[in-house]
Amino acid sequence: MRIISGLYKSRKIVAPKNLPVRPTTDMAKESLFNILNNLYYFDEVTVLDLFAGTGNISYEFASRGAQQITCVDQHFACVKFINETAKKFEMPIETIKAEVFKFLEKASFKVNIVFADPPYDFSDEDFAKIPQLVFQNDFLLEDGILVVEHSKHTNLSEVEHFSYSKSYGGNVFSFFEKNEA
């Protein structure tokens, strides 16, 4: 994986092969950040990265100037890799080792962007539970959005707070907002 833009542009990050992850493709990541670039000044945003995996999305936010990024993942090896990479590049990334649904039920956070990249084989109910918990527990600031990455075989358009989705190959980003568009 590589960082597309910002301070660490073109840096390659090689994750251990034994991590239970499926990193977002560079094409999809670049498209996502083009959308977000039209909505936010990255040096003013706070980010919560759920199912963070390798930290791929968080590194991109950090490279573009985000000053507060929190990654949540339940796998020790993923959290360890993110911590090592963030330290190496002096990125403002904090990690929390936790099962995401338990974290969302108990934590108290307010951020501009919540990004969630759960396993693509999640059930429709598990996918729907992410926006439900994010909005129910008020994780988003007034201008905030939730972005859920999923496969083209999952449809989240009927989930409350859904705004729109964008497809890139087999990847889809569904956007959720406090005030439905």
Automatic annotation (TrEMBL):
Supply one GO molecular-function term: 16S rRNA (guanine(966)-N(2))-methyltransferase activity
Q: Which UniProt keywords apply?
A: Methyltransferase, Transferase
Q: Which Gene3D superfamilies match?
A: Vaccinia Virus protein VP39 (3.40.50.150)
Q: Which InterPro entries match?
A: DNA_methylase_N6_adenine_CS, RNA_MeTrfase_RsmD, SAM-dependent_MTases_sf
Give the EC number(s) listed in the UniProt record: 2.1.1.171
Q: Per the record, a Pfam family? A: Cons_hypoth95
Q: Which SUPFAM superfamilies does this one have? A: S-adenosyl-L-methionine-dependent methyltransferases (SSF53335)
The protein in question is named 16S rRNA (Guanine(966)-N(2))-methyltransferase RsmD
Give the gene that encodes this protein: rsmD
